[in-house]
Task: structure prediction
Amino acid sequence: MEAQLQELKKTDKEIQLLVHTAALLQWDQETGMPAGAVEERSDQLALLEGMIHDRLTAPRVGELLKKVMEKFGTPGFSMLEVDENAPIFFEKAFLRSFGRNYERAAKLPRRWVTEMAQKSSRAQAAWVEARRNDNFPEFQPHLEELLRLTMEKAEILGYPEHPYDALLDEFEPEMRTGEVARVFNELQAKLKPLVGQIAAKEPVDDSFRYRTYPADTQREFSSRILREMGYDFDRGRLDESAHPFTTSLGGKDVRVTTRYNEQDLFNALFGSIHEGGHALYEMGIDENYHGSVLGEGTSLGIHESQSRTWENLIGRSVEFWNHYFPVLKKDYFPEQLSDIDLEHFIRGVNKVEPSLIRINADELTYSLHVILRFELEVALVSGDLKVRDLPAAWNEGMKRLLGVTPDSDAKGVLQDVHWSMGAIGYFPTYALGNLFGAQFFKVLREDIPEVDREIARGKLRAVREWQGENIHRYGSSLTATELCGKISGEDLNPEYFIQYLEKKFGNLNDL
Amino acid sequence: MEAQLQELKKTDKEIQLLVHTAALLQWDQETGMPAGAVEERSDQLALLEGMIHDRLTAPRVGELLKKVMEKFGTPGFSMLEVDENAPIFFEKAFLRSFGRNYERAAKLPRRWVTEMAQKSSRAQAAWVEARRNDNFPEFQPHLEELLRLTMEKAEILGYPEHPYDALLDEFEPEMRTGEVARVFNELQAKLKPLVGQIAAKEPVDDSFRYRTYPADTQREFSSRILREMGYDFDRGRLDESAHPFTTSLGGKDVRVTTRYNEQDLFNALFGSIHEGGHALYEMGIDENYHGSVLGEGTSLGIHESQSRTWENLIGRSVEFWNHYFPVLKKDYFPEQLSDIDLEHFIRGVNKVEPSLIRINADELTYSLHVILRFELEVALVSGDLKVRDLPAAWNEGMKRLLGVTPDSDAKGVLQDVHWSMGAIGYFPTYALGNLFGAQFFKVLREDIPEVDREIARGKLRAVREWQGENIHRYGSSLTATELCGKISGEDLNPEYFIQYLEKKFGNLNDL
Result:
């Protein structure tokens, strides 16, 4: 029994070493790999991914899991019922996560995996072209193929209520389509009038952000904020890449990237804070989980809650800039910001404007972009929407939710890479992150009543310590739902995010 | 038959992908990995090295090789007898190299490999301490253990004449101890009087090299020279590391590193040119060999011939600086070099002075440092010298060969890392590189009579093209001995290196 568990842990450790090695191959590809290396790099990645899959789905793993599970109980138990200080806590959480990964991977036949890899590789190339040419029909047959494979995947994996549950489960374990629909409906109903109110006001002048800000100085300021957030440069690095990301190359090697746009102060600034939020999560995981399947964030939604809390709830707050704006203006960009005062800056940082592109959207409208994608994905997977009708449905949804209509598919249905990668079920996690983040932050404020004063003095440690104690250290030993219940005493509730937005944008009007 | 060959090639390709992935893990560790990652990184490397070893020594590989070899003939054939334009050329060369690697790896039992890995890891830590404390006895028991394991290795692998043959063979395939002794004896006999003559003259003033040279400007000049040598930045990168190196992460990803010392102009300058010479070799290998065992340099000696040709024969030549000194002075360091003329600079670049440390030695005395290490290694492996007597033997040898005696073991027998890694048999390749380099360069001069004039105009392309055509493209399909015979029509002959030195240092006296 003990020997069988040890063998599983050893397999898991090897898998994690390979996962982290593959992460280095990818990190290097994004940050500085010479162009000529791209072909062999993809062979290297394919080999490693194959080895990871083979180790995870080896028949021996299935046998071992079956035997060990008989002792430990079947998956489906709640980790909240287990004493987290008992040694059994790790074992049970480990078996739940590892078993879950095994189940999903072992169910999918190699034929399906290979076909998906090939078709999504071609679909990505087609998407790049279609977007460049603003020509959806070029992408349509590829997306139809990926949708067919995705629907096949849902049937192979099985699902409790809706086929979309099986897709969601990959990114947000144990989250259900019905649950997402419920919270998104509530959110949408509250957000739309709020957006309408603010859009009707005098437009905010944020033109100062588009002055010229040298990259080197931006880098220094990003590094400083990361350091003061608690990002540990002895266990990480800050580099540049076309698309910012955070990646773990080991429990003690959590790297972030950003992108410096000299004509836009906010890109790298909020990008760095966002990625820093992801990185604090990974850096804060219990060292005992390092090298195991538990040594990573528990879901994309919880991950996004950490990055968005830092980017928005903290990084766009009056308190934060109360401390950092004088620093930014005096020590970094005295010329560029000479005529800008704190109030002007904070309004610029929080400008709300319904727009076409999700990744450029403000804090208030962002979730509506996500809700549109969720609705369309569910309709596609249910068979209620055909791929060929997607552009029209997109434009109708943008009008309905945001009051704007794209003048091209390139700025509409073709804007995101996700579908071309076959990643259907991913988008909701972005908005779930907003909801989890606000729900957790409310508890944080109750636990640390002085937190706003601390932030206003540039003291960010209390936030990170609270997050570390309540969220980070658990890695993936608790699911998102368990974490949410443990922290807030209730299920996911969009009310907190809405209250936060109403209060914040109400107050900003009084500035 | 064809199927068996294909299976071997597929295994080889996987091994190369893993070798290149491991190279990335190492490159990253040397260039920018966060300090905290060191422990997991060594686990990642150990896992990959284990997988490479397991793939190479799988019983199936032995069976396949046996069957295929029956058709293709046993190893030991000369590739010079095979038409290099026939398809069979690749197959025969592939089987020879792959079979050779299999034989060596399969003979060594896992017990030995594990013990060597553990003991050398401890020995390296002990060496660092012993060197710091200038205390050889701290290192002695570790070196005794490594020597025991090394002698055991020689017996396991077998050898034609001398146990040292088996060690040399790892770094310089098919080179014999007797051959090295013959050329080193001749070299030594000629070098000693030459060094004596020059050392007796007025010392050269090279104090200008120790002025302050900002790293950024050094980086720009290093990059420029690399580019003009023909180093392709679309297939490589220049980074910084404590010890400069070149590494292949793929056939189209050959990276170099250097180290900028702001108080010494020559460190990064000649370091970059040296590594550039290694990189041109790897970048020049026939694309058909990429991803196979043939897609790398054929031996350390030939590799070193390429780096030393660029560093010394070209990079320290009157012709090279005739073009580059005005550029360096005008565009890069006008203040630092304001009072230095071309003649002064060239004398500084070629200053000869017997000294204690190999890696700082000049072109003339360098080989004598290597000859000492070779003599001591052979004596140790033969049992003629005990490890405890090594410091005395070292100091005696330094006095005899170079006329200087270390005032500490830290600057003597403890200066190099190699023995602490168990790398006995490696050192000779450094001096063999000087000999191969001069022998090849003589042929290059005959083939391209205008080469010196080209270099003096800053045109380096002709050199690289000749090297590409005659050396680089062959990868490891020809052995060092075959290459040497094919290019120069004779065996390795130290006479050419000696003639080069006599002519160069004779002429420098006339400057």
In short: The beta strands of chain A are 238-240, 246-248, 254-258. The domain at 205-368+434-508 of chain A is CATH 1.10.1370.30 (Neurolysin; domain 3).
